[in-house]
Structure formats: C-alpha cells, structure tokens
Amino acid sequence: MTVATAREVLTSGDVSRALRRIAHEILERNKGADDLVLLGIPSRGVPLAQRLGAAMREVEGAHVPVGSLDVTMHRDDLRHQPVRPLARTDIPPGGIDDKVVVLVDDVLFHGRTIRAALEALAELGRPRTVRLAVLVDRGHRELPIRADHVGKNLPTSSSERVRVHLTELDGEDSVTIEGGDR
C-alpha cells in the first residue's frame, strides 16, 4: 500500500490574504455592499462565505448577508457517487430576488458543482446577477463555467487531489495537493 504524499501549496497566511483580496474584489466590482448576498456551498464553501462576509464588514462597515446553498439533489453524478447526506440550505432574510448573489466554494474543478448550484438557485428566486468566488481554481473544466473571483489558480494534473483544510472544520487553514507524478 502506498501512502499519498501531500505538499502544502497555501499556508494559513496565504488563505487569509486570498480571502481578504477576494472580499475587496467583490466589494469593488459591486461598488460597495448594497444588495450583496453570499451563499456558501457546503461544506467548505460555507465557512469561506462567512469569512468573506466578516472581511467585508471590516472593510465596508456594512453587514453582508451570508447563507448556504445545498446542491446535493441537483448533482448529475448522484447515481455514480456514494450516498451523500443532505446539507442545509439557508437563505438570508430578504431572499435573493434582485440581489447580487455570490456563490462561494473551496475548489473549482470540472464545474459540475457550480452547475448544480445554479439549478438550485433558480428554484429559490431570481437574482439580478450571480457571481462565483472560489479559493482555488484547478482547471480541468468540463462545463463552460469560470470563477469571477479566485484566491489561487493552481494548475494540477487530473490524478492529483486538492485538499482544502479550514480551521472551522479541520482545526487549521491550508491547501495541499496529494498524489500525481510530482
């Protein structure tokens, strides 16, 4: 049995700086915090969205509503994956109609999770605009989806696995790559 070696590509400080930069980019593009709603995709997108909301509050002095959007039942790989537990969808008061909704996830890979998120979002209302913020974009897209805000573009091989560790879930912040030919 071979043991997978992991190499750290983002430290705790790198994650923190990337999230602060993304928060600033979102606020700049939106010209402030008005009508923004952040929706994290479980599981790691939720604490990332909460951190972005806190960073925006520090910068702008305004509360940005943060919620979560479960995409499980909209995934196109349900019959190929082991049974997944449903996560929580929590839409902030005021809803998403005519709002600028920023979907937040940890890693953008094939684009299928985001496709599922767009379907789930369509069932809940009609945002004015939908944007995407991810901590890591690793390429290998199978669908025409791109992130508007990226913490780190991380070219990887298909055989590698990107792992995002967050303090809220794992006790530490870091991003590692496992496997591959490196």
Topology:
Layout lengths: L5 E5 L1 H19 L5 E5 L4 H16 L5 E3 L31 E9 L3 H13 L4 E9 L11 E5 L6 E6 L1 H4 L3 E6 L3
Parallel strand pairs: 2-3, 2-4, 4-5, 5-6
Antiparallel strand pairs: 1-8, 7-8
Helix pairs in contact: 1-2
Descriptive terms for the model:
182 residues, alpha/beta, five-stranded parallel beta sheet, three-stranded antiparallel beta sheet, 4 helices
Explain what this protein looks like in three dimensions.
The protein has a single domain (about 15-155), classed as 3-Layer(aba) Sandwich (Rossmann fold), CATH 3.40.50.2020. It contains 4 helices and 8 strands, in the order E-H-E-H-E-E-H-E-E-E-H-E. A 5-stranded parallel beta sheet has the order 3-2-4-5-6, with helices on both faces. It is an alpha/beta fold. Strand 4 (about 100-110), helix 3 (about 110-125) and strand 5 form a beta-alpha-beta unit. The two termini are about 20 Å apart.
